[in-house]
């Protein structure tokens, strides 16, 4: 159960969010920065990347999200965020738009063809055009500052479907398991298959509609960005790379001549 909302929303500079002295001391011991080494963690623990340059808000996020049970890495610049998200696997990213070196939009744009985990934007920018641009670049949620920590945690849990693990959408075939909610594809030996964001979108659509033939246009409209290349050859390229990465399991993706593609659902629940 969430604690009563007795403090000011975080990011509201008119009022202090938490006692700065004790929080700062606690943060020094708890902080996990991108520049430091990473401890090995259990596969069931959810790892979040927090991208925030403001020390006070960053420390509050680390402490609050850790108390909610998440494993946290903190990046204070766009460059650190880019390297961290492409080097390690995270379940979700919390991204500020106002960073000292790159804008959050730059980071989203660089990630969108390579990052498979969802991105929640947390920012003081509240204009509609900023929201729409963030969504068009691949963000799955947008929370303006100041914000309540309880609301942020609730949004993260909703996006990750943390409440009921048994309801996560998973599809298993041959030696592969695809977690559609966690946006992860793994082999039976536990190794991850490294798909780009667009490749995962295409595979997830074929799995969700398994047994049905989908046209290239249907696949492009449902999985590729509005301002991206949606031509037939782009879809063909994505499917070709997915098959190659899946190995023998990729044979399930059948070409339906004159139409598009279909995932063979035989013996796949």
Descriptive notes:
The chain is α/β, with parallel strands linked by helices and 269 residues long. The chain has two domains: 20-165, Response regulator (Rossmann fold, 3-Layer(aba) Sandwich); 169-263, Arc Repressor Mutant, subunit A. The chain is 36% helix and 17% strand. It contains nine helices and eleven strands. A five-stranded parallel sheet has the order 2-1-3-4-5, sandwiched between helices. Strands 6-7-8 form a three-stranded antiparallel sheet, with helices on one face. Helix 1 (20-30) packs across helix 2 and helix 3 packs parallel to helix 4. It is globular, with a radius of gyration of 20 Å. Mean pLDDT is 79; it is low at 1-7 and 13-44.
CATH C-level of the largest domain: Alpha Beta
User: How many domain modules?
Assistant: 2
Mean pLDDT: 79
Supply the CATH architecture of the largest domain: 3-Layer(aba) Sandwich
Please give the alpha-carbon distance between the first and last residues. Answer: 35 Å
């Amino acid at each position: 159960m969430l604690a009563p909302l007795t403090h000011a929303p975080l990011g509201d500079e008119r009022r202090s969010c938490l006692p700065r002295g004790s929080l700062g001391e606690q943060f020094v011991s708890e902080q996990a920065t991108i520049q430091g080494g990473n401890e090995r963690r259990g596969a069931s623990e959810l790892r979040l990347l927090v991208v925030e340059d403001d020390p006070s808000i960053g420390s509050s996020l680390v402490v609050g999200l850790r108390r909610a049970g998440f494993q946290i890495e903190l990046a204070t610049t766009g460059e650190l965020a880019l390297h961290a998200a492409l080097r390690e696997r995270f379940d979700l990213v919390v991204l500020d738009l106002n960073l000292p070196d790159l804008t959050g939009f730059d980071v989203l744009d660089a990630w969108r063809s390579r990052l498979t985990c969802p991105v929640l934007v947390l920012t003081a920018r509240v204009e509609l055009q900023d929201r729409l641009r963030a969504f068009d670049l691949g963000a799955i949620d947008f929370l303006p500052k100041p914000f309540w920590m309880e609301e942020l945690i609730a949004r993260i849990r909703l996006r990750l479907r943390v409440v009921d693990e048994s309801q996560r959408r998973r599809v298993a075939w041959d030696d592969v398991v695809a977690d559609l909610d966690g946006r992860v594809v793994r082999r039976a030996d536990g190794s991850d298959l490294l798909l780009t964001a667009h490749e995962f979108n295409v595979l997830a659509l074929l799995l969700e509609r398994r047994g049905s033939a989908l046209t290239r246009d249907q696949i492009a409209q449902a999985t590729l960005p509005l301002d991206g290349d949606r031509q037939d050859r782009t879809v063909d390229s994505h499917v070709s790379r997915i098959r190659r990465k899946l190995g023998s399991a990729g044979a399930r993706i059948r070409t339906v001549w004159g139409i598009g593609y279909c995932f063979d659902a035989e013996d796949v629940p």
